[in-house]
Amino acid sequence: MLSKLIIQNFAIIDQLEITFHEDLSIITGETGAGKSIILGALGLLLGNRADAKSLKQSDQKCIIEGHFILSELHLKSFFELHELDYDSHCILRREINTEGKSRAFINDTPVNLSTLKTLGEKLVDIHSQHETITLNNKHFQLSVVDSVCMHKALLLQYHKDFRIFQDQKNTLATLIANSEKGKAEFDYLQFQFEELEQAGLKASEEATLEVEQKQLTHAEEIKTALDQVAQMLAETDPAVIIQLKSSIQLLNTIEKYSDAISGLKDRISASLIEIKDIASELADLAMQTSLDPSRLTIIEDRLNLIYKLQQKHRLNSSEELIDLQMQIEQKMLAFAGIDDQIERLTSTIEKNKIALKKIATTLSENRVKGNALLIQQINALLVDVGMPNALFQISHEQTTQLSENGFDKITFLFSANKGFSPSELSKVASGGELSRLMLCIKSIIAQNEKLATIIFDEIDTGISGEVANKVGSILQSLSKNMQVISITHLPQIAGLGDAHYFVYKDHQKDKTYTNIRILSMEERVLEIAKMLSGDNPSEIAMGTAKELIKTKK
DSSP assignment, residue 214? Predict the structure, then answer.
């Protein structure tokens, strides 16, 4: 319910604060006093477009704030969906700056206008002779039928399952698109993988081959040098080994004279052994070194292949090429798994579709019965609200395709006059007729579920007498299950309110302001008496006013 409305710097409103009653609130006031301005401010709060012309003082921003009690409206999922903090006490705020740009807030969290509008539609239904959007909305019409079918739990289950079904279909579409896109990519990946696999790359292979390539390329030079050094050490005259042997022999003759000489001799002996070993290895290495053009060709071809693959893939080593091969293999395996995923998900979707169709069929059967009941109830209420010649019908179409609400398409048809076939509401009904029809519909819905706040703007236009009493009775009954705010010119309806608000123009110096105040019992009697007989009500009018207020009780 709307508990409080605060308006600052809007149209001819300077500062206004209204605390509303939870049941039936009545708003009265002279024509032009500003009732429509208050509704306009509320409309802005609920997401209507704004501009700088809305500002009373052009150098100050306009602020409209509404306080709502959400405890019985089951809106927690909406707040979770839009990542908003949920509290049973919700504050909506709209700010319009001097340039006409606006900002919207829900519980002090900035939101876009569409989010504010979506929540606003769930909180307040403003219905006037010019506001027929809700009544013409196909989703609303279907929800009216559902309200009398008493299958809320089944409908909630269907909505949950249908969202899952849609998510699965979206996922399947993505998988199929990826699969089709991946076919060309898979062929290319396969070519790359086979090329790398055939290369048979090994870690550190490149470095090893490059060393061998250098050796084979310079084999003659290496062999010549090794042979020469080996000969210098062991075979030439005088060879190093022979000279070392001679040195040892000479030192043998004199080592007895000095320990130092003996030590030097031992070192030369050790060097002799080492040089002999070196000479032997040099000879062996020279023997092993040979010219092998065929082996050199093999190595060069192998290195050229490795270099070519590195250049192609913009990599720097055999190790990086091996890593790339492994990555390509993983991608190929992933592509191969998509087809399996598609097959499994397709099967799951088909099973879920069968289950959804079963629920949708049950919903359709319930709606057929609900249509008949709703038609009967509304047509009876139309007589009560002064439209005995009106005829309400429902067009019920069933499709083969599942939608968010099942198989059904509901269209309300209406004729206000005898002899005319019922047609869609937007084509045949006046604003006053639609207002009374909405009243009938809301009264039926309210019997089955808790609704948001509804505001009727001059629903009483064109009615009087007993019809007015009937409309008032319906409003009063409706207010037992929801908050009802009615702007009226009829004393019969005004007398039924749980709270009575009076809108008036406040003239201060050279400026005029719209203001509103809640009336005391004595003020209510006087105001209703004025509605009956004018500004100077008679004693009879005062008595009648008292009786009208008593009628409520």
Answer: H
Please say whether the beta carbons of 342 and 172 come within 8 A.
Answer: yes
**pLDDT, position 551:** 63
238-271 burial, b if ≥16 CB within 10 A, otherwise e? ebbbeebeebbeebeeebeeeeebeeebeeeeee
Query: Please, which residues have CB within 8 angstroms of residue 457's CB and are 6 or more apart in sequence?
Result: 35, 36, 39, 126, 127, 128, 129, 131, 435, 487
pLDDT confidence band for 129 (50 / 70 / 90): low
CA angle 459/492/523 to nearest 5° reads 110
Ordered domains of the chain (ranges, CATH): 1-132+457-519 (3.40.50.300), 184-334 (no CATH)
pLDDT band with cut points at 50, 70 and 90 for residue 509: confident
SS3 407: strand
Instruction: Report yes or no on whether pTM surpasses 0.70.
Output: no
The DSSP 8-state label assigned to residue 421 in this structure reads: -
User: Cα separation of 531 and 312, whole Å?
Assistant: 93
Instruction: Copy the structure tokens of residue 214.
Output: 């250098």
3-state secondary structure 32-61: CCCHHHHHHHHHHHCCCCCCHHHECCCCCC
Contact 155, 146 (CB under 8 A): yes
Asked if residue 238 has a cis previous peptide bond (ω within 30° of 0), the answer is: yes
From the list 197, 151, 82, the residue with the least C-alpha distance to 406 is 151
**Contact assessment for residue 335 and residue 172, using Cβ atoms and an 8 Å cutoff:** no
List helix spans (H) across 218-317: 219-234, 240-254, 259-288, 293-313
Q: How many C-beta neighbours within 10 Å does residue 315 have?
A: 15
Q: Which residues contact 501 (CB under 8 A, 6 or more apart)?
A: 18, 25, 26, 27, 28, 516, 517, 518, 519
Residue 68's nearest CA partner among 2, 121, 142 is: 2
Separation between Cα atoms, residue 227 and residue 41, nearest integer Å: 108
* Residue whose structure tokens are 């395709």: 401
Give the span between the Cα atoms of 491 and 278, in whole angstroms.
128
Contact 408, 363 (CB under 8 A): yes
DSSP state of 464: -
- Cβ neighbors of 262 (< 8 A, separation 6 or more) are 251, 255
Please give the pLDDT value at position 183. 67
Axis-axis angle for helices 318-384, 293-313 (nearest 10): 20
